Amino acid sequence: MTIMAAVATLTGSVGLYPLFEKGSWFWASVGAVLAVSGGGLLARRLRLPAVVNLVFGLAGLLLYLNLMYAGRDSWLLIPTPESLRHLADLANGGWQSANRYAAPVPVLPGIELMTAAGVGLVAVLVDLLAVRLRRTAPAGLPLLAMYSVPAAVRDDGVSWLAFGIGALGFLGLLMTDARDQVGGWGRAVTGRRQSEVPLAGAEPDRDERDRQAPQLDAAALAASGRRIAVGAIAVAVLVPAAVPGLQPRGMFGIGGDGGGATQTVTTPDPLVSLKRELTRLDDSIVLTYESNDTQAPDYLRLYALDKFEGDRWTYTDLDSQPKDRLDERDIPPPPGLSAVSSREVMTKIHVRPEVRNMTFLPVPYAPSKVSIGGDWRVDERSLMIYSLRDSAGGRDFTVRSRRAEPTTGQLAAAGNYPAEIVSRYTEVPKNVPTEVRQLAQDVTAGSATALSQAVRLQRWFTLSGGFTYDLSAPAPKHGSDLVDFLLRSKRGYCEQYAASMALMARILGIPSRVAMGYTSGSEVRPGEWVVRSRDAHAWPELYFEGTGWVRFEPTPSGAGGQGTADAPRYSLPAVTDGDGEEGETAPEQDDSTPTDDGAPTAQPSAPHRNDLDTGRGDGAGQDEGHEFSLTPWLAGGTLVLLLVAAPMALRELTRRRRWAGLAPPPPGAPPRPRAPSGSPRGGDPAGAAHAAWREMRADALDHGLEWRSSDSPRATARRLEATLKLDAEGALALGRIARAEELARYSLSPSTEPPERLRADVRTVREAFAASVGPGTRWRARLLPPSTVEQTRTTFQAAGNRALDVRTRLNRIPTRFTRH
Fold first, then answer.
1. CB 353: neighbour CB atoms within 10 A?
2. pLDDT (mean) for 598-621
3. How far is CA 670 from CA 665, 666, 681, 686, 755, in A?
4. Which domains does the chain have, with CATH numbers?
5. For residues 42 and 175, is the Cβ–Cβ distance under 8 A?
6. Which residues 6+ apart lie within 8 Å of 763 measured at CB?
7. Is the pTM of this model over 0.85?
């Protein structure tokens, strides 16, 4: 049951796989489950109460986590205040990282610690319910809780294969419990089958059929149980997959068009994924591309976030239909692009195979034709290109796009906005604080055109506003976080800059949205570019009639900001007012541009470098791979082996002490000290007989044989001989031990059997015990002898009685003094 409880927990934890980028979390969970199982097994071998079983499981989990994640701060294997403080800090960092990233999250040390602790707590409950309390069915509830986490976090939920693996583990636990429960009643009793009519001339063999009937009945019941179990799993997997609407991708991810029905497209929070990319320490390559653009290529856009919800930007749900497929329609022209010139750009993109779950294509704006295999679709309003089932990882595709080339005069002279653009892209929630609204007016005071307002906003963020680029700033989760960024801290990364400028533009009546994707990256050869994870970026897009959506860059660039960001030319003109009076000039930014307040700027290429060696911090600056170390596993394995070997070692120690001092002391030798309780003194025949009898009793208990304390030695020998069917040598050995114990108890003349012979007789009887039981019982007698558990329990009870006696005597002392 202990083994199956651990297996059921581990198979249930397989359902957590969609939450993580790598699989190292599973091996950490394996160690946690083994530690919990070892603690629970030790508590049960000592026959302690159920509450203590829970405490032992939690203690085993704590020792494991302390050893794995805070071993350097511990005293040997014992937790110390410093190690516990380190665990708490690591867990706090893991919690912050889990809230910061979208699934699948990187397996940072803090996140791995939280996962191992969570799976370990489930193992504690399963071990307590299924093994200690024998309530196996309720043990499925904590196992089910592990499935609820990915189901709540991810829209895809858990795959049918992961669910089937967990279900099989739980059914195995139920079957093991049922076998133990039924086996406790002995052999199953079944009725006889009705005799079959024999063939003519054949003699029916009723005895043979009667002997096989119970076995056939048991086999039929077991086969029926297995068929029911498999059928239940099949129904649980197939029915939800076949019900329309429950699986957006169809049965097992095949199909999913729903017969032409509209489907709502959802993805993890794009801005949360952005922070994860920016804080990756490996700075891995995401994609490479070739472009025929004569200028620096434009940004590669993934998302267009058009909806501001008061605390974060997101995009309106996409109602996908089969007619939106790229192979069934042309990409619509970009909205608003009509009055300015544009040129066609060809881009060949290769996404690395390591990139996962990229269901939106990174393409330059505005795409006019995309050549890619698979089911890819386009959103008519935003021109985002996405898929319901495919990922861009490992794919090569070609994008033909139109790149607008507006002049500052064309943008300044842009006409009025269409009504649908105004209603959709200028909406501002009522809960936006008044000070933010007033700040937008103050920063752009004196500007009469939308372009001059946009340029003043960009210049305020990058030059005159006193802002500092800082990747360690937390992502905004509440409206107050945005106010704090704009008015007080002024520290953040591209998400805060882009979100704030787009909001302030809407306050001024300029249609705006937040785009997210990658900068143009770095040119490695003429016309060939590389985009890395650090090139992930967010920027605002503002709408100008005649040009359409225009990119701006409020995030500082270069070494003091987003390394590969660059502001477009039209956003760096001389700002003119409506009456033609020229205002201040917004110079182009360079890598050495300081902030107005002279505050040092953070380097985006090395966030939290000081945390790499210590393994501390919030997890964002720690090594995502969490390099595997063999030392903690060796130490943990040694601890488990010591716990497992403790009963066996105690049994061997007891046996040696029992036979200590059997040989008489040599002549003239000083008298030996008093032997331990139960150990014969040298030259004591009665002590040797008692030692042999106790040793034989312990061997009988270890091998699961019945021992009746009320029987006399002679009656015990007769019963054991009849049960074991001993040979002549074994029967003589058993008889000598019983006769020696009988004489030692009841006769004034104890046995004259030498202790060496009694010890050899005990060994012979032990071998007979082992030969009479199965291999499982024999191994239990060697590794986890029940007699040791009984001895330990008796020792604890005696110690408790002594402590109670001492306490009683101490309580009587004040009474005596009072009487005197």
1. 9
2. 36
3. 8, 9, 14, 22, 21
4. 2-185 (no CATH), 273-411 (no CATH), 414-512+539-597 (3.10.620), 646-659+679-784 (1.20.120)
5. no
6. none
7. no
